[in-house]
Structure prediction request, 336 residues.
Amino acid sequence: MTESRTESRTQSRTAAEHRTDTATTPVTRWIEQHAHRLTSLDPEAPLTDLEPLAEIVRDAKVVAMGASNRHTHELSALSHRLVRFLVEQMGFRTLALEGDEAERVGLDAYVRTGDGDPRELLADARSFWQTEEILDTVRWMRAFNRGRPDDPVRFAGAHPTLQGPSAIEPAGLADIERTLAESTIRWQERTADKIVYWGGIAHTAVGDPRTVSPPVPPLTHRNAGSYLREHFGDAFVSIGQTFHHGMAPDQILPPPPEFADSVLGDTNLDTYLLDLRAHAPEPVRTWLDTPTRTRMIGPHYDPAHNAAYYMSGGSLTDWFDAVLHVREVTAVRFLF
Prediction:
């Protein structure tokens, strides 16, 4: 553990030195001037630092939060804060947790009625749901619903279960992307709820198509985000959640310099929200609109092949309306 912390501190010093060298570039200067610094990762903290998000999602029917890694505490805590903001401030009333069916494991009944123990219920869920951060979100939903029998926040039903790429043929993965989108569309049409979609960046980005690696060879096909944008238009908002380096749960190195995450991490901001639709001068707009790679790290990561974990096939502005970036991450707290 001591060695890992030392490695993390070394990464932070290296990243800080690199930021000093690049902080005067037009892109990093624009990010520092236009990004909104987030002041807390505490899900219970006041939400005033997220108020700039209101303009981005004002007309949205579906807001998708896509993390570049599901096992980071900071991105999960930010997702919880976004759920709170969208529910409390913007009237969203459904949370779609990607990858399993909340109804199947009893979580929807729990948040509506209080029946069951959420920790025990999560024991039957997919492994990437089995974290203290997800449990905190579920408990918050239940607390919000007390005294609101006619206006509850709930989980979307009939969300397909995800399996790893090694378990499904490529054509099957493309079908799953379509099914993820169709189940979200059906739920929104049936309930008229505004939906927060909490998932992985490979699924929530607007990729028409997009390429993901691993596996080897990389796979290219349309994803759920592209179908949701096609159906909802501007009423679908995609928020990318990215990071620079850290532990999740093992050491993750800084991204290669050609990755968008490298530039996003070169600022003097630790955690921030960036509206990619904001006015930008030509050099910045060119960078935002140029096809790039962004990191996408699943449950298995080998630092010796750091550059092999990515999503490509589009630009930041193709994929996202906004980005939430965290410079350094730590591991989620696993329940079991």
Remarks:
- Confidence is low (pLDDT under 50) at residues 1-23.
- Residues 170-191 form the longest helix (22 residues).
- The longest strand covers residues 236-247.
